[in-house]
Amino acid sequence: MSAREPVLVGGRWQASLDTAGEFRALDPTRAVEVGAAFPISGAQDARAALASACAAAEELAACAPARIAAFLDAYAAAIEADGETLVELAHLETALPARPRLAEVELPRASGQLRQAARAARERSWTQPIIDTAAGLRSHLAPLRKPVLIFGPNNFPFAFNAVAGSDFASAIAARNPVIAKVHPSHPGTSQRLAQLAHRALLDAGLPAQSLQVLYHLDPALGLELAGDARLGALAFTGSRSAGLALKAAADAAGVPAYLELSSVNPVFLLEGALRERGEALAQEFFASCTLGVGQFCTNPGVVVVPRGEAGDAFVAAAAARFDAAPAGTMFSQGVLDHLRAGVAAWRAAGAQPLGGDVAADGEGYRVRPALLGVDAAAFVADRRLQSEAFGPASLAVRVDGIDEALQVAAALEGNLTGTIYGGDSAADDDDWRRLAGALRPRVGRLIDGRMPTGVAVSAAMNHGGPYPSTGHPGFTAVGMPSAIRRFAALHCYDHVRQDALPEELRDRNPGGLSRWIDGGWTLDDIATKTGGTTA
Amino acid sequence: MSAREPVLVGGRWQASLDTAGEFRALDPTRAVEVGAAFPISGAQDARAALASACAAAEELAACAPARIAAFLDAYAAAIEADGETLVELAHLETALPARPRLAEVELPRASGQLRQAARAARERSWTQPIIDTAAGLRSHLAPLRKPVLIFGPNNFPFAFNAVAGSDFASAIAARNPVIAKVHPSHPGTSQRLAQLAHRALLDAGLPAQSLQVLYHLDPALGLELAGDARLGALAFTGSRSAGLALKAAADAAGVPAYLELSSVNPVFLLEGALRERGEALAQEFFASCTLGVGQFCTNPGVVVVPRGEAGDAFVAAAAARFDAAPAGTMFSQGVLDHLRAGVAAWRAAGAQPLGGDVAADGEGYRVRPALLGVDAAAFVADRRLQSEAFGPASLAVRVDGIDEALQVAAALEGNLTGTIYGGDSAADDDDWRRLAGALRPRVGRLIDGRMPTGVAVSAAMNHGGPYPSTGHPGFTAVGMPSAIRRFAALHCYDHVRQDALPEELRDRNPGGLSRWIDGGWTLDDIATKTGGTTA
Question: What residues in A contact B521, CB-CB < 8 Å?
Fold first, then answer.
């Protein structure tokens, strides 16, 4: 008992109140336990975390945005200062390369994202103040004043971690307490991040109970938490089955659920593009498929290739790369099993192997990538071919001309991204446009001529999409200040006195916030006291 | 069969495909059938309406905003031109006063709302364009490209009608087809509106299938429609039980549901306000409770009154008004039964009658208003006292000082509005502030010193609130352009060529739309072609 690591509940690190067992991280390269023993939390931990987060909600909502921003900036700096240790831990627990991936890509992305959230918290454009002086009405987006429950994924130990990633940064920037259920595949990394976050919270003078951290929960307990009406929102990144179960619980309690569930991120290659640079595209596609051993939400799981010479050459070139590829190490046995089950489902629906093979390959969770192929008619007819095989497996769908490509597009479920590569010909231009029209309602981000695996942290990003890729088509999970708006409530003030209004809705606007006043954006003050006309 | 009125399905008025029966409007003043026989639609009607609306989605989404605006403006003008007939029909079917309510308040509100939607469609600020030139990303809110299913309520035959109200105007302004399930208590009014809408659609050159109208459906069929993944969104205004059933169906299919369910709209009266103007407040409260025979979503169903002399005087003055009030006519036997059941539930939970009585009173659906009383402890302990008794019944909750008032506030479920009346004293100021803090997370609109029944159609309005008053705390059902955003999907374009971008995301901005470019709002063009820096 005493050897188990503490949880962060009630504003302090303490022994799990009613641990339901323990677990350790596994080194994916050897499939052996490493590091400390972490508790599997029982109902007491979960309930105490929720009650404690609720208790902090009002105080956190009342904190000055500058203080929130100071916390986020300090936390970002602490992550950078602790980078070497964090990278070492994350590498050990995930087998992701320390360099460049963890140290040079993901860690700076995570700290940069926290700094973007800090800026957004400070400048407050996410609150979208709207003032109608004639009607005496003022409204804005405000903190939920309820906790946000975040389930972090396995695939980004820093940038999507429930204690450091976009959901965390967004929820805190909107001044809501966070209950972080981190992913049990990297508990040591998450603990280290949580320690930095907790210290930075205290240093910034934010309520200690603003952050609760649990490492592992029985799924039934996760559903209990997600379905508690005291929650302000649920954020989840992970598998479709787990996400939909949590969504059902949250829906039943009226809790808005923001989920990133699954996506096959179709890539359409047009005839001209293949003729112009088929070999280069094969390399680009292969690299995107196998980046991070395919463990990306935006991994291109489906590539749509015309029949004929250029398409055949592309498929052959890609297949050769899959054949020759070395094995990579996935996060866990569960991820590996899920990948193989996905590929088996494709096979059962008629897909044929083209290159590589996801069979076991040596020690730990090693696996080689695989490319499979199927014809358009089968893809259109059988939904199993759209099941996400999370990992380095992709499906080439062969189409006879643009009409069949359009049928494939029309058959797609909701996805995070959709990509079209066209060449310089007028025919490709025309096909590009028609495909874009078919893809547009089915994807969150429409990409022209590049692979989907790059997700910039930008206000203009949409890391979201139609169901079932996410739970709501109107929001992005990445990009500040946009992602913050998920964790806000619309608050209206009707003829409320100046000194009882939130700062961004008062007549005076000393911070220079853009506000929509009487029909347009302005930085101006309002001249009269209340209910009057604009300056 | 031939005598039944047609439905609007497939772009034209046609006989119901498989009517499951028929019904007629009832004159509420006499409880006798009036007007034509309307079909209760069966599954074929419902499915044909959905398929037809889906077929129009792409074409409507591609329509120029100016054409959408022209339709909305023309429809508004047609409603006004037909005002006399519409008012007569609505008066007959709802028993709402022809004047001032229907002719001078609600009809101009409905046409004004359509014109606001037209302006919003034209100026396009609802699309919230965001451009990051360095990242090559551009995003905006776009049509769902799927139909919006709207269930209209009984209480606003014009301004919330599924073929003319805010949900309709919002969905069309966002260029989504509408499937309108109008309320069967006013089929003639709805048919007349739908005829005007249909004609205006055709005149404006919008796809005829952009609007489908059904009058009545078996609830199971409503659930089937609401749970169809081909829907873009569900909008519902009505009772909590019906709304939650539809929400569950929509949730399971991943369809965003925007619901206005129920609200008791608590009004807190502070000691000083009562001493200064208790008699006037009693009149104000009584008038708000009984406006439209209490059939308002924002009807003040709970008034919180301090114990003591001033509070007693207020309650006595209010009770006398309820006692002396004449009966009013409600919409239907169902509404009347629901009101009585609600009052009976209050009684069962310990509430005592103070004035008036909701017993039957003469011909038709006539009822007198009623005021009941209960103490704070009972209110806090028993959720039945928060059940909405839709109609002219309110509950006075007596509190011992501000601490008990705060307990009542803290016990409240989510509501559309919360009101506090304070006097000029410093004590009231202090109490006002504390109560506002407690109410703020529990209401969508916080009102200072006026009754909640006025809902201005304003961009700064929030006709929304936390669950269970609505299904999502981040959106308003009333006010343009805000309400439009419910029916939009976030679309991102990643390095997409200029001529394949939607107009509002191109470099050139001839329409002078406000766009968030590289961190701030601007009306400017972007100087370079794509992926470059701002002008």
Answer: 514, 521
